[in-house]
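Incident log, support desk, overnight shift.

02:14 A customer reports that sequence design results differ from what the structure should imply. Their input is reproduced verbatim below. On-call engineer (initials T.W.) acknowledged and began investigating.
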């Protein structure tokens, strides 16, 4: 089973337009959860789902100002080396099935957090 815990950078396409995103996944067994920040007007979302072998599926729920959440379904595959994933997403079939992909980020957020908690200052200044 692939372990996807960590920081990821990705892109999803909607009707030919691409949106970049940053994601942080935490995996416990087959269960995954985390956060995504879209580089667009939709902004921040939470993630919950599962990884079975190299298959990943999760629901991305946007946090809105009016407290209503829009849920987007993601399904895909994780590469054998565990550093990339890609697949299709859909929003209740309204836009059909669109492409998405993500790659591990070079950032080591866990190291940065440990340093901050120890020294009370960020790694990157």
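02:41 Re-run completed on a clean worker. Output:
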């Amino acid at each position: 089973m692939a372990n996807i815990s960590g920081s990821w950078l990705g892109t999803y396409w909607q009707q030919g337009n691409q949106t970049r995103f940053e994601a942080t996944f935490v995996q416990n067994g087959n269960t995954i959860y985390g956060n995504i920040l879209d580089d667009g007007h939709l902004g921040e979302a939470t993630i919950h789902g599962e990884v079975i072998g190299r298959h990943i599926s999760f629901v991305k729920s946007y946090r809105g100002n009016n407290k209503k959440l829009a849920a987007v379904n993601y399904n895909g595959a994780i590469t054998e080396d565990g550093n990339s994933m890609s697949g299709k997403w859909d929003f209740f079939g309204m836009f059909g099935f669109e492409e998405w992909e993500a790659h591990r980020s070079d950032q080591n957020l866990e190291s940065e957090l440990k340093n901050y908690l120890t020294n009370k200052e960020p790694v990157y200044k």
